[in-house]
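Reminder to self: tokens first, then the designed residues, so the page reads top to bottom the way the pipeline ran.
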């Protein structure tokens, strides 16, 4: 299952979904993932997470690559594109099923939301409706013509992961979907299979994904893959404290360029937000690598106010 030529040296990765141009928050997470990997002698890989085909926009993956390169973020092969890897995910699903670790789920989103609002339900967790269906009950649901998703049977396993920024994090594994009801592998499975196949042993990403880490670590173990070290980094937020988004103003390289923000200056801005440079100081990714010290990273979100970005510092 391992990619040829990738054993031995560990790897970090950046795994954007090609649904829109990268904004300052995405670029900052990509820079951090690169710094964590390169400062520890790891390979650094790019992976396009494009399984949510309805949200993928043509041309975006290429622009994301160009934007990362213009900041000085470089990648090693292989480049993975998840939509090309259905057969690999199918093998992993077969392995899980063989171990009795998956079950069919016929619930609609609405049914899950309704069950989740019942007394004693645990918010954010699958309520377990289809976990113990009998063969007759499954046959009855099949007759409605509804295609099932596949969920993992995690039995509320408790898992602890090590996070370089958050310390030890313990949580209960949720029965997440690993194959969607359109037959496509789900995010949770694809991430684990791809990280395992390319020797990724260091996962650096936004802290909105922290709660997925215990589930992904559990899945890795079930598939006989090593569990990576994690670093969940604080996100960039807008002035209202919500996750930064394109609608917040000029926050992508393409939007910022006409305001005088060259890629170098944006790199300086990101470096300043990470306590790695003074405002306006010219920097390169190589220079940042020498300065990088995870201990000095800010542990609170970066607040981005596009009104303050109307022109770069002189
Ligand atoms: N594709 C996910 C995103 O763009 C990242 C997944 C991950 O890093 O595990 O938010």
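Designed residues (314 positions):
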């Amino acid at each position: 299952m391992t990619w040829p030529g990738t054993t031995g040296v560990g790897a970090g990765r950046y795994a954007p979904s090609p649904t829109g141009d990268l904004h300052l928050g995405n670029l900052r997470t990509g820079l951090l993932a690169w710094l964590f990997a390169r400062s520890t002698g790891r390979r650094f890989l790019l992976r396009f997470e494009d399984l949510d085909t309805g949200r993928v926009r043509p041309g975006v993956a290429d622009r994301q690559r160009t934007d990362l390169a213009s900041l000085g973020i470089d990648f090693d092969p292989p480049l993975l594109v998840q939509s090309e890897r259905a057969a690999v995910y199918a093998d992993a699903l077969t392995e899980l099923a063989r171990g009795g670790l998956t079950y069919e789920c016929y619930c609609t989103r609405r049914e899950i939301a309704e069950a989740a609002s019942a007394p004693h339900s645990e918010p954010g967790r699958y309520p377990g409706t289809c976990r113990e269906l009998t063969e007759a009950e499954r046959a009855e649901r099949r007759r409605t013509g509804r295609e099932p998703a596949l969920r993992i049977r995690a039995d509320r396993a408790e898992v602890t992961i090590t996070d370089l920024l958050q310390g030890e994090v313990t949580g209960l594994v949720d029965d997440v979907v690993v194959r969607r009801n359109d037959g496509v592998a789900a995010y949770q499975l694809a991430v684990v299979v791809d990280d395992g196949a390319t020797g990724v042993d260091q996962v650096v990403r936004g802290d909105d994904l922290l709660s997925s880490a215990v589930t992904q670590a559990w899945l890795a173990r079930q598939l006989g893959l090593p569990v990576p070290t994690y670093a969940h980094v604080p996100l960039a937020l807008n002035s209202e404290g919500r996750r930064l988004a394109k609608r917040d103003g000029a926050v992508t390289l393409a939007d910022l360029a006409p305001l005088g923000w060259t890629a170098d200056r944006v790199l300086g801005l990101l470096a300043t937000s990470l306590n790695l440079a003074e405002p306006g100081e010219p920097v390169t990714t190589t220079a940042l690598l020498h300065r990088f010290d995870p201990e000095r990273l800010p542990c609170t979100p970066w607040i981005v106010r596009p009104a303050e970005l109307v022109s770069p510092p002189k």
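The chain has a mean pLDDT of 94.
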